[in-house]
Amino acid sequence: MFPKVPDQHKPNKPLVPNGLGVFYVLVSVAYLFIIYFFDVVKTSNGVSAPLTLAVCILFGGFMGLLDEWMDVKWRYKAFLPLIAALPLTVFAQMLPLRPTVSIPFIGTIDFGTAYYFLIIPLLVTVVTNTVNQLGGLNGLETIPPAIVMIGLMIISGEKAILLCIPLTAWLLLAIQNFRGKIFVGNTGSFAIGMTVAAFAVISDLKLDLVISILPYVFNSSLILLTFFFFRKKANVSFDGKKLSSDHRRSLITLITYHRKLTERQVVTIISALVAISTLFALLI
Predict the structure, then answer these.
(1) pLDDT tens-digit profile of 133-165?
(2) Enclosing domain of residue 194
(3) Is the pLDDT of residue 268 over 80?
(4) Which of 192, 197, 239, 284 is exposed most, by the fewest CB atoms within 10 A?
(5) Three-state secondary-structure class, residue 26
(6) Alpha-carbon gap, residue 38 to 82, rounded angstroms
(7) Burial status of residue 115 (CB atoms within 10 A of its CB: 0-12, 13-18, 19 or more)
(8) Are 195 and 166 in contact (CB under 8 A)?
(9) What is the number of domains present in the chain?
(10) Residue 254 maps to a domain
(11) pTM over 0.90
(12) Is residue 226 included in any domain, yes or no?
């Protein structure tokens, strides 16, 4: 039913079904439509949180499918999430959400109208693309985003109901992905990136999200800087049992630099880093 691709970091490179992130999209959107229909989350000032989040997840899934079919170049992929920022911008203006960010030890920064037309689009674009860039290992595309999602839900109050079923669906996929049975594909990684970005905006948890995804931002910065300045891409070697690298051009290659680790060890380390940054976001 689903196209199969080789698992590059397993002996003999077995074929694994790819693109099962579409199930996350379908389940999440159906759930959000249901809670909108039954008015579980009240509509305010003519805008609905469930519908706004559903639109964003749908667009994230569409971006992923488009990339799977056409192999969209990064110069276009980087800016496609700006389209998904439109319903969030309308949502934030209509409520309205506060255009300020409170930073510990610095104070409150008021962005004014720039928050709606600059900060929200920038946040959605950065989060969606950084989440998509950290992958390639079983469990890496699914476990760290689940940690971020759980962290945001803990501090979001009544808005947490928006992600109850989406989180459950994602965790079920994460278990299978970690076991090497499935890949969520770009459909899943773009959809989950869009989910956490949109949910953070809807729940007014901008700073918490930025702190939680610091490992993602570090990974993308390392990848982009080494490519722009040295025109070299990150690549990890697999000897049939363990991963290793002779350079430091991404978070994965940094962790495996002259150090042989199993795939699960690398995923566990990166998941732990995301858990630490998310815990820090909860504590400040």
Answers:
(1) 999 999 999 999 999 999 999 999 999 999 999
(2) 14-207
(3) yes
(4) 239
(5) helix
(6) 30
(7) buried
(8) yes
(9) 1
(10) no
(11) yes
(12) no
